[in-house]
């Protein structure tokens, strides 16, 4: 009995403390509310109570403010109404434009912005009590959001968006297990950890009506469509204002739209608005390709737009949500089998997707996406007083997601994504590339079948991001790519990679020789990732199945590596490469610098233009230390002429592909090396005929095709050097280091797919292990035979008889004739590439 009495005493003390806290809270709120009502009557009064109220709301706990939510909300909404009314343009009958002189607002900008700050803080701390209360607040915010930049300040417009987002965050799942709100995730699927600070956790409250269920009902469809339109329009207006536009408002609009889509949360409720929303997002991403500053070029805004577009598509075009429309079985997202099961479950699934007719509304099914609502979605009836009137909406905001609709919609989406995503993969801002990676992960995980036309493009983007300069981006992309290969979607990914491989090989010369270096690097690295992660079988199936396919592949790389490629590209690139200070004449400073430079480097290490610049300096050569000699001929190494084609990064990516094609089966090495060796054998044969006929070097070189044959042989030796480097023990370890396989923990792949399941990270095999297994199968005797056959050709006397300067050419009977310096340069490069091979395998 004593214990019970003691507990009762503690309970009474607790209740007494709570009552005292409530009294103090009410007393302070009463003071602020009276001041706000007085401010409404006397607009010229200084709004000093608003900052104080904001500080009080910030430090008060939610359970203390909740009982006084309506009491605090009332004066704030009155002031917001007054602020909007005095800023809204007056209604004029007819279409006559009247110049209205600007007068001071009844509610100043400082007061209006303070009201929105207090309202946002109040909505963060308290719950909405009913649907009617939510409708009233949304109506007030809707009028405020419709104000233009000329009518309201940037802070005011941003505050309106933040208040609307706070309203959305008030919506939570209700306790009713049978409620339709259980279909809603409630948070953006691709929410970045950096955005979590703006989302405060709040316990759900029990209300008679489920606010979340109301939001994705047909009754609220008009309001949802109107807010989607307002948010997209707000972002578009800021972009159109150029450098005067606000990037903060644009970011807030996109982030709030993502939250709205997540709270609506069902494909049935949001699919009707897909054409307008997606086309507006595509416009944003398209403009970002040319705008690098201002609100339109905001990196944060682009990141939000990319994630928002992906989340909208993931919600409407999710594979599992469109099973009945596609006529697929329950495991459509993994196996993609046609649905032949007429079970009760599939029948009920089809019934669930049928539109519901009401007495006042008729179903309007939009089969063609072009007929659907655009960014100016039908607005719900806004009156001066009263709640939302949905009776004036013609038809329901519903679209039947049939198979034809999905096919047509996905085709339009594919065009929009293909025009933007590949460019954004190589964007200079890391945050934009992170947004693209998050979007690619989400779309491949959730919409791999509905967006099957975009699947190749998305995988290509993923391969580009695997080689991203940022370790954070590249490691995340690699983990997700490995999760795809370890899931039950592996077969489809392998087929897609095979198609990407074929397409990339065909356009490789055009990309390398005719594109900017950044785009060329991304394309070549994409091909390298496809080969490496697919494994040796891809090489065997597509390159080594016949000598013809192997020869065609090596011809493509010979074209990319050839010395003639030094003259590819734009004229501006060639002119900028000339270090001339006055016209085309070299300055004295350049000539002196060249002399000192050439004294400290071997002549064969110069580029073609450097060899022919100053022939008088080529005779000056300094002795190099032994370690420098070893470093000079160490592989991997870029040939001197390739500096005019692209960067070292581009060459290493091209060389990496060659190193993976060499020896994936016991007889493949000879098949691969025979093609480049044919050029060397042809050169040996031509030189032998020249010696037998006693022909001079000058005459032989000017014969049609001889100079080209010499350059082809030089390129062939370069290819052989890279191919044979692929048989070394260092190769697989270097690729494992490049793709960070030593530092990866395979258990980290769980959950990396942005919602993807069916991933088995514990059973996945690192790509390096696959290549090592293939390497162990190679017969060493066959490798020795291949290297021996190459050495046999390299040691031919005809190749060593090529002259390197005028003095050696004088030994010929008519050597006094003039010989172009290009001949000596090409011969020197051929010597250099052979020295690299001899140093690698004979020392």
Automatic annotation (TrEMBL):
InterPro entries: ARM-type_fold (IPR016024), TELO2-interacting_protein_1 (IPR052587), TPR_TTI1_N (IPR057566). GO terms for cellular component: cytoplasm. Residues 213-469 form the TTI1 N-terminal TPR domain. It comes from the Eukaryota. PANTHER family: TEL2 INTERACTING PROTEIN 1 TTI1 FAMILY MEMBER (PTHR18460), TELO2-INTERACTING PROTEIN 1 HOMOLOG (PTHR18460:SF3). This is TTI1 N-terminal TPR domain-containing protein.
């Amino acid at each position: 009995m004593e214990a019970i009495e003691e507990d009762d005493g503690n309970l009474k003390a607790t209740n007494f403390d709570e009552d005292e806290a409530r009294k103090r809270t009410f007393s302070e709120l009463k003071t602020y509310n009276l001041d706000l009502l007085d401010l409404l009557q006397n607009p010229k009064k200084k709004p000093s109570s608003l900052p104080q109220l904001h500080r009080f709301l910030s430090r008060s706990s939610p359970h203390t403010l909740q009982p006084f939510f309506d009491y605090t909300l009332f004066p704030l909404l009155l002031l917001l109404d007054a602020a909007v009314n005095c800023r809204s343009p007056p209604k004029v009958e007819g279409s006559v434009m009247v110049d209205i002189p600007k007068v001071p607002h009844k509610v100043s900008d400082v007061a209006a912005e303070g009201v929105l700050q207090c309202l946002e803080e109040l909505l963060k701390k308290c719950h909405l009590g009913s649907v009617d209360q939510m409708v009233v607040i949304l109506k007030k915010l809707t009028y405020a959001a419709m104000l233009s930049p000329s009518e309201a300040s940037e802070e005011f417009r941003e505050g309106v968006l933040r208040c609307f987002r706070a309203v959305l965050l008030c919506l939570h799942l209700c306790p009713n297990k049978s409620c339709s709100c259980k279909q809603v995730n409630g948070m953006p699927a691709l929410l970045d950890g950096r955005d979590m600070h703006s989302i405060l956790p709040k316990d759900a409250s029990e209300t008679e009506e489920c606010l979340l269920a109301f939001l994705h009902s047909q009754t609220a469809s008009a309001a949802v469509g109107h807010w989607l339109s307002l948010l997209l329009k707000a972002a578009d207006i800021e972009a159109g204002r150029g450098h005067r536009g606000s990037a903060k408002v644009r970011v807030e609009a996109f982030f709030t739209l993502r939250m709205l889509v997540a709270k609506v949360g069902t494909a049935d409720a949001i699919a009707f608005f897909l054409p307008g929303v997606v086309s507006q997002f595509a416009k944003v991403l398209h403009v970002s390709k040319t705008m690098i500053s201002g609100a339109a070029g905001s990196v944060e805004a682009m990141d939000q737009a990319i994630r928002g577009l992906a989340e909208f598509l993931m919600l409407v075009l999710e594979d599992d949500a469109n099973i009945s429309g596609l006529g697929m079985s329950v495991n459509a997202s993994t196996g993609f089998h046609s649905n032949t099961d007429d079970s009760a479950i599939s029948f009920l699934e089809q019934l669930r997707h049928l539109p519901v007719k009401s007495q006042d509304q008729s179903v309007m099914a939009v089969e063609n996406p072009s007929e659907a609502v655009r960014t100016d979605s039908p607005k719900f009836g806004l009156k001066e007083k009263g709640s939302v009137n949905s009776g004036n909406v013609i038809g329901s905001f519903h679209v039947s997601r049939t198979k034809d609709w999905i096919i047509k919609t996905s085709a339009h989406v594919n065009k929009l994504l293909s025009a933007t995503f590949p460019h954004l993969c190589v964007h200079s801002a890391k945050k934009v590339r992170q947004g693209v990676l998050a979007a690619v992960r989400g779309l491949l995980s959730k919409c791999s079948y509905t967006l099957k036309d975009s699947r190749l493009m998305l995988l290509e983007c993923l391969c580009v991001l695997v080689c991203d300069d940022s370790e954070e981006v590249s490691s995340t992309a690699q983990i997700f790519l490995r999760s795809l290969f370890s899931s039950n979607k592996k077969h489809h990914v392998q087929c897609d990679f095979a198609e990407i491989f074929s397409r990339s090989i065909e356009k490789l010369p055009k990309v390398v020789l005719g594109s900017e270096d950044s785009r060329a690097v991304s394309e070549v690295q994409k091909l390298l990732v496809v080969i490496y992660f697919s494994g040796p079988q891809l090489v065997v199936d597509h390159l080594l199945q016949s000598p013809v396919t192997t020869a065609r592949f090596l011809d493509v790389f010979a074209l990319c590596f050839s010395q003639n490629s030094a003259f590819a590209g734009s004229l501006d690139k060639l002119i900028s490469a000339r270090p001339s200070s006055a016209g085309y004449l070299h300055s004295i400073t350049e000539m002196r610098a060249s002399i000192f430079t050439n004294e400290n480097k071997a002549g064969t290490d110069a580029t073609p233009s450097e060899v022919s610049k100053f022939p008088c300096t080529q005779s000056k050569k300094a002795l190099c230390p032994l370690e420098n000699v070893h470093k000079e001929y160490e592989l991997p190494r870029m040939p001197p002429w390739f500096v005019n084609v692209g960067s070292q990064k581009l060459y290493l990516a091209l060389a990496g592909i060659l190193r993976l094609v060499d020896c994936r089966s016991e007889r493949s090495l000879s098949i691969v090396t025979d093609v480049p060796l044919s050029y060397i054998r042809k050169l040996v044969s031509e030189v032998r005929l020249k010696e037998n006929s006693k022909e001079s070097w000058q005459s032989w070189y000017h014969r049609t095709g001889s100079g080209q044959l010499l350059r082809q042989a030089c390129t062939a030796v370069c290819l052989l050097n890279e191919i044979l480097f692929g048989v070394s023990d260092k190769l697989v370890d270097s690729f494992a280091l490049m793709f960070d396989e030593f530092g990866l923990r395979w258990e980290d792949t769980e959950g990396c797919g942005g919602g993807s399941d069916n991933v088995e990270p514990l059973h996945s095999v690192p790509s390096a292990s696959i290549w090592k297994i293939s390497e162990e199968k190679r017969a060493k005797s066959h490798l020795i035979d291949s290297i021996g056959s190459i050495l046999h050709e390299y040691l031919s006397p005809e190749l060593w008889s090529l002259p390197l300067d005028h003095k050696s050419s004088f030994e010929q009977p008519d050597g006094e004739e003039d010989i172009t310096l290009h001949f000596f340069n090409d011969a020197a490069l051929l010597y250099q590439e052979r020295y690299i091979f001899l140093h690698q395998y004979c020392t």
